[in-house]
Amino acid sequence: MLGRIGLVAVGLVLGVGTLAAQAQQDWVIGPWVRASDGPVIAPKKDSVFHDPVSGAPVHWEALHTFNPAAVVRGGKIYVLYRAEDDSGAMQIGMHVSRLGLAVSGDGVHFERRPEPVFYPDKDAQAEREQPGGVEDPRVVETEDGTYVLTYTQWSRKRQAYTVGIATSKDLEHWTKHGPAFAGAKGGKYDALKYKSAGIVTRRVGKKIVAAKIDGRYWMYWGEIHVGVATSEDLIHWTPVEDGDGKPVVLLEARAGKSDSGFPETGPPAVLTERGVVLLYNAKNADSETRDTSLAAGAYSVQEALFDAKNPAKLVDRTSEPVFRPERPFEQSGQYAAGTTFAEGLVLFQGKWWMYYGCADSFVGVASAPVR
Fold first, then answer.
1. Prior bond to 68 cis, omega within 30?
2. What is the pLDDT of residue 90?
3. Whole-angstrom Cα distance, residue 348 to residue 225?
4. How far is CA 292 from CA 19, 258, 259, 284, in A?
5. Residue closest to 81 by CA, chosen among 90, 71, 68, 95
6. If both were cysteines, with which of 64, 77, 88, 360 could 84 make a disulfide (CB 3.0 to 4.6 Å apart)?
7. Handedness of CA 152, 155, 161, 162 (dihedral sign)
8. For residue range 262-282, what is the model confidence (pLDDT) as tens digits?
9. What global pTM score does this model have?
10. Element (H or E) spanning 51, and its range?
């Protein structure tokens, strides 16, 4: 337990109100404290990659590096991060996105692969990923050591986006399997636009692996409304529906809260003794219904608790952010309203580590004690 001095120090970092609220909700993962005073991954203008689509060299991580997935492998943290090149117009979503890979022995200092490990290619997913790219990854490990990646397939030409699924044994060589909901319910969801998906996990010793609950895998998905889907194999997913045959809505916007704009799925959720804990990204509204303690449009992190035996049943939800944009590198960049956009969550060296995107421009990291 923290002593008086420790509580005061944490209170100064988090805010006394946030700390008190988290103490009342003892299922919350936290309190979160920044593990670095600056970004842990930033753009590199001199990184060059021979693009298989254009056939030309590109500066693949020249503009922005953000929205990271994370997993522990061989005693080190591996981060898959979204990298944008310097092509296209200087607007959000107008550059090509690829995924880079960075490795750290301490969670803060990273060595990066010189080329992306996942990218648009002349493959079966080309129509869904060009021009635009592969974005916003989340990754989980299975019990047999396979890695399952959920990511956004974005095509400006089609003006469409879907959650794609890919698998790998080494985090560097990937097999793409296409959209998560392809063919579900007789093709009912084939034309749906959807993004942001995190598979439910559980702790096995020091590892976190994909969890089966009631004989199935579960995955929270979506922005605006957060729903849940199930799978037998982690590749083919079916949305859980309500009585009207529509995707069940588990989380939606709340007036006056930091998610007054909308909630969006964050990192893979974790099955705990209290239930399934989901960290999610909360967008503040631009209107008078927003949380006035945050900038209009800012993204913070909230948490939700779902029933351990029925992950489609909401049990509790934080009322205040557990983490919010406060530092300059979290409030400047191509999304200047401020962003702490969580997508990576791992257990490492006896602590939780959360990797997040900063203002759609950098990667940051925070840590929390394991309770």
1. no
2. 66
3. 31
4. 19, 9, 12, 9
5. 68
6. 64
7. negative
8. 999 999 999 999 999 999 999
9. 0.93
10. none
Longest distance between any two alpha carbons in the chain, whole Å: 61
State the pLDDT at residue 333: 86
pLDDT at 310: 97
Cα torsion angle, 209, 214, 217, 218, sign: negative
Other Cβ atoms closer than 10 A to 17: 12
CA 366 to the chain's CA centroid: 14
Reading the block at residue 214, the tokens are 């009631």
Positive/negative CA dihedral, 76, 79, 80, 85? negative
pLDDT tens track for 4-26: 333 334 443 444 445 555 556 99
Size of the chain in residues: 371
Of 58, 22, 69, nearest in space to 266 by CA: 69
With tokens 């439910």, the residue in question is: 200
Q: What's the CATH class of domain 4-369?
A: mainly beta
Q: Is the preceding peptide bond at 131 cis, omega within 30 degrees of 0? A: yes
Q: How far apart are CA 73 and CA 218, in angstroms?
A: 23
For residue 205, name the pLDDT band (cuts at 50, 70, 90).
Answer: confident
Q: Which two tokens stand for residue 135?
A: 């974005």
Structure tokens at 223: 């922005």
